[in-house]
Amino acid sequence: MSTLPPPSAEAPPIVGVLALQGDVREHLIALAAADAVARPVRRPEELAEVDGLVIPGGESTTISKLAGLFGLMEPLRERVRAGMPVYGTCAGLIMLAEKILDPRSGQETIGGIDMIVRRNAFGRQNESFESAVAVEGVEGAPVEGVFIRAPWVESVGAAAEVLAEHDGHIVAVRQGNALATSFHPELTGDHRVHALFVDMVRAPR
Fold first, then answer.
1. Is 154 labeled as catalytic in the residue annotation?
2. CB neighbours of 39 closer than 8 A, spacing ≥ 6?
3. pTM summary value
């Protein structure tokens, strides 16, 4: 009597990193450590192949302009509106905001989180710092947050959930399948925030 083979384990999710500018490599490493298949995304056809997307830190104005030049802005908005899980760090947080208090000329966002953000709110490059941040949904000790010319969230709408604050300012937010942090967990070797996001990507699948 033949027996059926045991069911195979669920395939790991494919998570892209928007690779237009910023610390792309570090996110790819962190996602792989969180058991995702990590791929750089530069074109609409590459975006169409991923289950979720990370928008890295860098310079939000530059990322916005390059997304337009590469024909990615509208496809990004469409996929986020359709529920694709997305995670933005630092500049990526700005890209996911519905409103920027101090935008540069021509700067656009993807949207996805009902929040108002302030660019470079924690200071200039030479005022960068690290601090322990307790993030709701991340078990264990606080996350070591790296803040580099970091924004903060001035306010959130009713649909958005505040996950963390630092010095009285909102630095981590989630709304549905969208997650955003002011800080860079990918620079610390602690992959728990990325694991939280990869779990978010797995859930709709």
1. no
2. 14, 15, 16, 17, 28, 46, 49, 50
3. 0.92
